[in-house]
Design brief:
Number of strands: 10
Structural class: alpha/beta
Protein name: TM1812 family CRISPR-associated protein
Radius of gyration: 33 Å
Shape: elongated
Distance between the termini: 75 Å
Oligomer: single chain
Largest sheet: 6 strands, mixed
Length: 480
């Protein structure tokens, strides 16, 4: 069972002869917590040298230090045992070194299941930041939650306590925003919004849409992303209510930031693939970017560059059972443009071009290898001569580049999905370096390439019957 732990910097008592009933400011914070049913089980008090050593005339007529008064007079009045007060000695003025020492001592005395309460009533201008820093450290390192942040001030004969917990909660909001804009996940934003109660329904709808986009992207549900983006676009058109407080103002700013964040994606329409890949790469979501390219790059390329199987080539693709019901563009790319490394040596492979896991062949590198420019050119010569493919001759350089880039997509996915400790040590000019820097560089090249071919339109040569890009292969059935 955790404790209620109150953090405070003890204010020095200064008697004002104009005020009959006087109090020390931290007293008001303690009384407030008791009234709220949250009596501290432990009070961690930063106590300056003046608080510990300088004697003052107290309200009860005695002369003693502020620390002695707080511990021996005030705490008994509110039925808190004196031993619950833990004194952490600090100088009257703290530099960075003494601040670090104070933070270290506070962190040492806070346990994992504790609940924090922070009193910002006393101390110099930097003390509030110090106490908030401790609270945030405990939250992120030990999952210790801060329930209340309060401050007290003397107003004539009364101590007025202000609860600033909601203001402190904006740190969670900022953290949640950072989580999305750095990693692409909106769960923390949604969780924060729910914890704050019912807010603007427009903002609820926006966060729900964005969270769905993030979830589909994280789970590589790539075919749902276009609809997700459309839903976000609709949510961004709605107008939230007028800001009533600071939280609502932040949500308005958040909505504006989302409009900026998704501007390129939303403006891409049906050609959003380059923007999505760039967005994923920018958020470190490399597996998602590779999955997007694996599933959507063949169709995207074939929408801009004319390449398709001949009737002979279609019959071969249709004869492979694994192609049943798939749009022809994916089997074409997978068969023709991901098989090239298999053709460099006499090498046994299965009917659907899956490699064996034997390490006796090509020193185990064959599974992860890619072709070079010359090999790609020679291969395309061969399949054109054998009447397996037909292309628009004008776009052959762009098509060869697409094939080489797609090879890299598939081979990076193979390495990430199937690499073992031995695979990571492979060294070969055919094996792509498996690290985030090279993956990101590859994704940037592919994004630039996709944007480069985006203005192109599919030019069907004369006397060629065009196969729609989305046409599916009925397995075992000839095309014509």
């Amino acid at each position: 069972m955790g404790r209620n732990v109150l953090l405070l910097y003890m204010s020095i008592f200064n008697k004002n002869p104009k005020i009959q009933t006087q109090t020390q400011t931290n007293e008001g914070a303690v009384r407030y917590l008791i009234e709220e049913g949250e009596t501290p089980d432990c009070i961690l008090a930063l106590c300056s040298e003046r608080v510990r050593k300088e004697a003052k005339e107290m309200p009860d007529g005695s002369t003693r230090t502020t620390l002695e008064y707080f511990r021996d007079s005030f705490l008994p009045k509110v039925h808190i045992p004196a031993e619950r007060l833990v004194v952490i000695e600090v100088p009257d003025s703290m530099d960075e070194e003494t601040q670090f020492q104070a933070i270290s001592q506070l962190l040492e005395k806070i346990e994992k299941e504790d609940t924090l309460f922070v009193d910002l009533s006393g101390g110099m201008r930097d003390v509030a930041m110090l106490l908030v820093t401790v609270a945030r450290c405990m939250r992120d390192l030990r999952y210790v939650q801060t329930r209340r942040v309060i401050c007290a001030e003397l107003n004539n004969n009364e101590t007025v306590v202000h609860d600033r917990t909601q203001l402190y909660g904006l740190f969670d909001f900022v953290t949640a925003m950072d989580a999305f804009f750095s990693t692409g996940t909106a769960q923390k934003l949604t969780r924060y919004l729910r914890s704050e109660g019912e807010k603007d329904p427009v903002l609820h709808a926006l966060l729900t849409r964005i969270n769905q986009f993030s979830e589909d992207l994280a789970l590589c549900r790539v075919r749902k992303l276009s609809n997700d983006l459309n839903q976000i676009a609709q949510a961004l058109k709605e107008t939230p209510k007028k800001s009533q407080n600071l939280t609502d103002l932040f949500f308005q700013m958040l909505k504006d930031r989302f409009s900026t964040e998704f501007a390129e994606l939303l403006s891409s329409g049906e050609k959003a693939l380059p923007a999505l890949v760039s967005w994923c790469a920018g958020h470190g979501m490399y597996q998602q970017a590779l999955t997007l390219l694996c599933e959507q790059m063949p169709e995207y390329v074939c929408q801009h560059l004319f390449v398709q199987p001949t009737p002979k080539g279609w019959e071969y693709l249709a004869a492979q059972m694994q192609n049943r019901g798939k749009p022809w563009v994916y089997p074409l790319f997978h068969f023709h443009f991901c098989r090239l490394t298999l053709l460099q040596k006499e090498y046994p492979y299965t009917a659907d071009l899956r490699l064996t896991r034997s390490r006796d062949d090509a020193e185990g590198n064959m599974l992860f290898g890619v072709a070079n420019d010359a090999e790609m050119h020679d291969y395309l010569d061969m399949v054109l001569a054998s009447e397996q493919l037909v292309i628009d001759p004008a776009i052959r350089p762009q098509l060869e580049q697409a094939a080489l880039l797609y090879q890299r997509v598939m081979q990076y996915r193979n390495q990430i999905n199937h690499a073992s400790a031995n695979d990571l040590g492979l060294q070969s000019e055919r094996v792509l370096p498996l690290d985030t820097e090279h993956i990101k560089e590859t994704l940037q090249k592919i994004t630039a390439y996709l944007n480069e071919i985006r203005p192109l339109k599919r030019n069907v040569p004369q006397d060629i019957e065009e196969i729609p890009v989305d046409a599916a292969i009925p397995a075992g059935t000839p095309a014509r």
